[in-house]
Structures are given as structure tokens and as C-alpha cells.
Write a structure and sequence with these properties.
Length: 181
């Protein structure tokens, strides 16, 4: 593991073997698996889990309650959200505490890719080998192998189940996901 200058890595962070951290990262209370790369200006909060052999690109925010499984790609400036109704204060005007909001856990399954600038709302699961297009806003679960894009994210295709078939190979799927079923 390398610890670059100008980074903040709290003592409670668990780093696997050969983790590569670039400058200006802010990590606390999280776990990062073996051979994962974390880009510049990334924040990973407490109780977030990053698997092995992942790439987390610069300017990404991974909040509490996010689990990213092995071999995932997270593009530049991806934002994860864990609170459906964020507020700074309670009804009485006092600052909120952890007891005043509901954490919505998010899961990014093995081999999924999330394009730059995507926003991932709390409480969703992005299935294995799914792909989220750049700038998408994901508001509900993404099926395994699916390709979604847009605001809100909509199904466009499903990735070929046989990755050995080659990059860019896609198969059409029905519209059940877009219909909300």
C-alpha cells in the first residue's frame, strides 16, 4: 500500500494487499480489498466496503452503507447517496444525529461498471456485470448484465453473458425492467 502526501487515512481503515492510493484521498472506517486502486480526491466513509481488484476513479464519493464487490469499475465523479430525505436539522431546529435518518444500503455486485458522473440513489442493487452509463441517475435495482443510461436510468441492453465473446457484444432484452416489473 502506498500512502501519498496530502491524504487522510484514519487508523480504523482496513487496506488489503497492494492497494494503490493516489493523492488527496479521505478514508475513514472503511475496508478496501486487495489490488484495488483509489484515485485522487476520493472520499470513502465509514462502513463502506470495497472489494478486490476494483478501480475507483478520481472525484468519487462513496458514503456509508455502500458495498462494492470484487472487480468493479467506478468512473470519475460518481456519487452514491444513502439518505432519501436529507436534512441538516430536526423539526425542533437541532442538528440531526445518526438516529434522525434512515441509512439506505447500496450494493454494486461483482464485475459491474459505473460510468463517470453517475448518481446512485440509496437502497439499490446494481447486478453482476451490469453497466451504468455516464451521467445516469440510478433510482432502482439494475438487473445482472443489464446496460442502463439516462435520467432516470433506463434499460438499453444486457451485456453478453459470455465475456469471452468479446467486448461490445450485446443482446436485446424485453421491456419488463422499463415497465417497472
Amino acid at each position: 500500500m502506498s500512502s501519498p502526501d496530502f491524504s487522510r487515512i484514519a487508523p480504523d481503515v482496513e487496506l488489503g494487499r497492494n492497494v494503490k492510493l493516489y493523492g488527496f484521498v479521505n478514508l475513514y472506517g472503511c475496508r478496501i480489498g486487495d489490488d484495488t486502486r483509489v484515485g485522487t480526491f476520493v472520499e470513502i466513509q465509514k462502513n463502506a466496503r470495497i472489494g478486490c481488484r476494483c478501480k475507483i476513479s478520481s472525484h468519487t464519493f462513496i458514503c456509508e452503507g455502500v458495498t462494492i464487490e470484487d472487480e468493479c469499475f467506478i468512473g470519475h465523479g460518481v456519487m452514491f447517496i444513502n439518505d432519501k430525505y436529507p436534512r441538516a436539522t430536526r423539526a425542533d431546529g437541532q442538528p440531526q444525529t445518526e438516529a434522525d435518518w434512515e441509512l439506505l444500503p447500496t450494493r454494486v455486485c461483482r464485475g459491474a461498471s459505473i460510468g463517470s458522473g453517475a448518481v446512485i440513489m440509496g437502497g439499490v442493487t446494481i447486478g453482476p456485470k451490469a453497466m451504468v452509463g455516464a451521467g445516469a441517475v440510478v433510482t432502482r435495482d439494475v438487473p445482472a448484465g443489464a446496460v442502463v443510461a439516462g435520467v432516470p436510468a433506463r434499460l438499453t441492453a444486457a451485456a453478453a453473458t459470455d465475456w469471452a465473446a468479446g467486448p461490445g457484444q450485446r443482446r436485446a432484452v424485453g421491456s419488463a425492467w422499463e415497465a417497472g416489473t
